[in-house]
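Example 3.2
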Amino acid sequence: MTHLRRIMIEELVRRNYSEATHESYIRAVEEFAVYFNCPPDRLGLEHIRIFQAHLFRDRKLSPNTVNQHLAALRFFYVKTLHKPWNTAETPYPKRVIRLPEVLSPDEVALLIDSAILPFHRMIVMTLYATGVRRAELAHLRVSDIDSKRMVVRIQGGKGLKDKDREVMLSEVLLEALREHWQRYKPKEWLFPGGKWHTSLNPITPKVAWRACREAAERCGLEKKVHPHVLRDAFATHLLDAGTDLRTIQLLLGHSNLEQTLRYLHVSKRHLSTAVSPLDSLTLSNKTINPDTPART
């Protein structure tokens, strides 16, 4: 491990950043150095501008992904090298806000039933039943399942180890978890890693991604399915069932209500309450002759 990498990791740890952020920031700085074939501490803002253009033009990355690269480089220069950062010279591209692609309840049921491996089926079911992120699912412990209070304790949250929360424990999920425990006998981690799921370490978040992808391919879903899609379905289906936004915000662990508001745009219940103004018009029943030339 190089001196710079060690210092950067120390700064990330001091600020309590998540392991996923550690990996993405380190990888972004490595790609930056490899592109110029030069140690990153010898590169400056002009190189960052060139690299930013390369990410857009050559690698065709989205604005949001480019922003992640810039955030990593900014952290490296400001927190690791203690160098100034001029936002005017390295502007962040405008973020693209996309609506989540939500699965219907029938599609979620099909996805769960298409997970042939019992371990994968349990992963897909838990993702949907609790709305957890894939990293949170990977770090669930057996002791986090409280069947007396019917809640699941989610420890840590998105990079914040002091941001614990609780979500409801479904009766259906509890029964499935009992079968899961009988089959794998997990001791500490609810989803132990290893080929036979007997490791002392938990699974990696990639296992959850693989479980969703394989189930989606097996049932022929055309929508792109990954763990966060089930999180989006969890929130949207709760909203459709009448759950208020504040409760959904707490269940998802959002720090800002604005993060939760986006589900209003895809909620079937909220969209169906709005009537198109076209329906209020009185239109003629006359049909248009297709042979009539259009006016210019």
